[in-house]
Amino acid sequence: MQYKLGVIGDPIRHSLSPKIHNIFSKQTNIDIDYQAYHVLENNLDKFLKDFFSEGGDGLNITLPHKVNCLRSVNSNSSLVNLIGAANTLHIDSSGLILAESTDGIGLMKDLKNKCSISSKNILILGAGGSALSIIPSIDACKPRNIILDNRSKDKLEKVIGRFFNSKEIYSNILNLENFNEHIDLVVNATSIGFSGSFSWSKDLKINNETILYDLSYSKNNSHTPFLEWGNQYTDKCFDGFGMLIQQAAASFELWTGVAPETKITKLDLLND
Ligand code: NDP
Question: pLDDT by residue (tens digit) across 116-170?
């Protein structure tokens, strides 16, 4: 059997997902046809309907479709219901399309050998889709506090309110404005990426013990602008390449039932 898989987005040309999934395929001996599809917003619903009715088994969803893809699915995981976005679609044995988010689990698996979350103060910069998607997984590891900050204050308040009003019980989710303790881990979940040098409007309360993690990643050994900035305070700096591999592995497992080996380096992707 060959699995019909892919990733959709706009733009999609630079996606590393086809290379990653083809490495998983070789490694597990599971036959896949994984394509990158350039899908525009006005063609999203039709693309998803056609893809799954023509035998598609699963898709990764990237920007800007993580929210609007939910219009075309039959059911959401509880995590997707909470955060209102998905990065993976899969099909169950009765042909229903299900939406899942593997970003949070991807981050936690990558952080596992880098730092502990339990009883720590975790600051997340950004209040977009990826910030929302990692909060429940971080919370599940029982941090002391999750502190949020975002450029636009109304979006920040909305995200804090969303977790405050949810049925689940979340540990303290606080606004950086009201926080004065030491920060143990800063996660950059903004899309500042590589658009110039990094700066932040507030003091981030970091020192040489603080760990910095950027969801953005470089394709080589150079630092992202956030880590370049943070490196003047601490050398404990990690980019989101490991998370990229781990969230892809979680999607691959959802589609095929097999967990692939995740020891993939940037060099492996360049050479593939
Ligand atoms: P969204 O567009 O949903 O959110 C973007 C966030 O960045 C918003 O909070 C926005 O603030 C903030 N922002 C954008 N520009 C600036 C700026 N110049 N200064 C300050 N804040 C800014 O994006 P996502 O959450 O989906 O993605 C964020 C990043 O995470 C992307 O770079 C993406 O590639 C990366 N990512 C990496 C993954 C991995 O596997 N490694 C997985 C998922 C995402 P405001 O509300 O004020 O506009």
Answer: 999 999 999 999 999 999 999 999 999 999 999 999 999 999 999 888 777 676 6
Here the tokens at position 32 are 């896949």
Residue 78, judged by CB atoms within 10 A of its CB (0-12, 13-18, 19+), counts as exposed
Within the chain, all domains assigned CATH 3.40.50.10860 are found at 2-102+243-270
**Atom 11 of ligand 1 has which residue's CA nearest to it?**
151
- Dist CA 247 CA 83 (whole Å): 16
Q: Among residues 19, 49, 66, 120, which one is catalytic?
A: 66
pTM of the predicted model as reported, rounded to 2 decimal places: 0.95
- Are 7 and 62 in contact by the 8 Å Cβ rule? The answer is yes
Domain 2-102+243-270 has CATH 3.30.420.110: no
**266 classed as catalytic:** no
The predicted-structure confidence for 38-68, as pLDDT tens digits, reads as follows 999 999 999 999 999 999 999 999 999 999 9
Report how far residue 149's alpha carbon sits from residue 147's, in angstroms, rounded to the nearest whole number.
7
Determine contact, residues 129/62, Cβ cutoff 8 Å. no
Token pair 């590589």 is found at 194
> How many angstroms is it from 157 CA to the middle of ligand 1?
16
Of 190, 199, 204, 246, which is best to mutate to test ligand 1, by the most ligand atoms within 8 angstroms of its C-beta? 190
The superfamily CATH assigns to domain 116-235 is NAD(P)-binding Rossmann-like Domain (3.40.50.720)
Q: Whose C-alpha lies nearest to ligand 1, atom 15?
A: 192
What share of the chain has pLDDT > 70, as a percent?
Answer: 98
Model confidence over 206-226: pLDDT tens digits?
999 999 999 999 988 899 999
